[in-house]
Design a protein that fits this description.
By secondary structure, this protein is of the alpha+beta class. Helices cover about 35% and strands about 25% of the residues. The longest helix has 24 residues. The protein is elongated and about 115 Å long.
């Protein structure tokens, strides 16, 4: 009888499930019915066995079941269906220095396979440059002053105390530091003219584009502040007005207040510079994800080979090795054509010539003989992993009249495993 304490101890040491084994398994109701019927059918024609079940044998049997389930799950992900890894697309730009494309969602309905984009202008922010004042002089009387600036719908006031030893450059630097420290959406710095020894306060908006009815992102109003020095500094002079991005997508004109646009909430585009020629954005299968998924499949397959090679104490390990490797050896020609090689020890690995198109065909659930053979093998291992352990036949079934015993299969196929219930 299975020692549940040993099984618990086996899993308590493996609580950290590897990332590629963390995908939950799920079945439809009809699938579970099929599994149950297969269990009952197998029990009708299966002998009754006697076997020892030490810790090592339990870990060996449970490992077979989990590895077989994981292998089937990984091969399903590579199949040709709507949830396949091949249906997960990525957006590729023909020039990432001009437009950077990224996928935000796999829902690409309504989007063409290719987009032709031309950028006439980028969205720009507002830049104001103040008066050039003598840097080493003080052009104001010492005293208390204010500085008011409106950013969008928000108004901000800064108070300054000017002393007799201060200079125009000191005033500009102190005000720039206060603006930057308060994070009001404006970045301030000083522009120096070293030829005539003058300096000007420069204000740049962090936002870009024209939003709302106002043509400016920030402005000044001296009517409500006493001793406002905005005019003295000359910061109301607009050097660059804010503009919206203007571009065409497949010939249709568009405008945006941002240089980051979203198409159907599926593709995000970062507009980086104006174009001299059309830039193409293509929707293609995500080769990196396909490669990672194929790596996971090979790892799961090789894990079963490892279990069979490391289970030499079990006579059934030889049969396990044969069942696992026969699938690959029987379809070695198709595997090789797709870029997967089989070595002398039965392990699978990628070559440098992996063909994603042939990989998709290789795992097609409807048309691939390799996929059918692999599924049949993994289902058999999942249903009865105890077939690969040492056991002694106690009684043979009645071959004339077989009576199903729905409770008996639990001894052979009701093993626990760590990420499925």
């Amino acid at each position: 009888m299975v020692n549940l304490n040993n099984i618990y101890n086996y899993y308590s040491s493996q609580l950290a499930i590897p990332k590629n084994y963390s995908k939950p398994q799920s079945h439809e109701k009809d699938d579970l019915k099929t599994v149950y019927k297969n269990m009952v059918k197998q029990n009708q024609s299966s002998p009754f066995y006697k076997f020892a079940f030490p810790d090592s044998t339990q870990a060996y049997a449970i490992g077979i079941k989990e590895a077989a389930m994981q292998l089937d799950s990984q091969s399903q992900s590579l199949g040709n269906h709507e949830d396949s890894i091949f249906q997960q697309m990525t957006a590729v730009s023909s020039n990432e220095n001009v437009i950077l494309a990224s996928m935000n969602s796999n829902d690409t309905d309504g989007l063409p396979d290719q987009l032709s984009i031309e950028i006439q202008t980028l969205a720009k922010g507002q830049t104001n440059v103040g008066n050039y004042l003598p840097s080493g002089e003080l052009s104001l009387e010492p005293g208390s002053y204010s500085f008011g600036i409106a950013v969008g719908q928000n108004e901000y006031t800064f108070n300054l105390n000017i002393h007799s030893g201060d200079t125009n450059l000191d005033i500009q630097r102190n005000l720039a530091s206060s603006i930057n420290d308060n994070n009001i959406g404006i970045r301030a710095n000083i522009r120096n003219n070293r030829v005539d020894g003058t300096s000007a306060l420069v204000l740049r908006s962090e936002a870009v584009g024209q939003s709302g009815d106002s043509e400016l992102l920030f402005h000044f109003d001296e009517s409500y502040l006493e001793n406002d020095i905005s005019s003295f500094l000359g910061v109301n002079q607009v050097e660059t007005a804010p503009t919206n991005a203007q571009f065409t997508i497949n010939g249709d004109f568009h405008s945006s207040i941002s240089n980051r646009i979203s198409l159907n909430h599926s593709i995000d585009l970062d507009l980086l510079s104006e174009t001299e020629e059309p830039i193409t954005i293509s929707l293609v299968p995500d080769e990196e994800k396909i490669s990672d998924q194929l790596d996971d499949f090979l790892q799961s397959y090789n894990r079963l080979v490892d279990i069979s090679r490391n289970g030499s104490s079990q006579k059934g390990a030889t049969r396990l090795f044969r069942d696992v490797t026969n699938v690959a050896r029987h379809h070695q020609k198709e595997l090789t054509a797709a870029g997967i090689q089989v070595d002398e020890n039965g392990y699978l690995s990628k070559t440098e010539e992996v063909d994603n198109g042939k990989i998709q065909v290789l795992f097609d659930e409807k048309n691939s003989a390799f996929r059918r053979d692999l599924k049949r093998t993994t289902e058999h291992m999942t249903l009865n992993p105890l077939e690969y352990i040492d056991k002694t036949v106690v009684t043979y079934p009645n071959t004339k009249v077989n009576y199903p015993n729905p409770y008996e299969p639990s001894k052979y196929s009701g093993l626990l495993y760590n990420d499925y219930a």
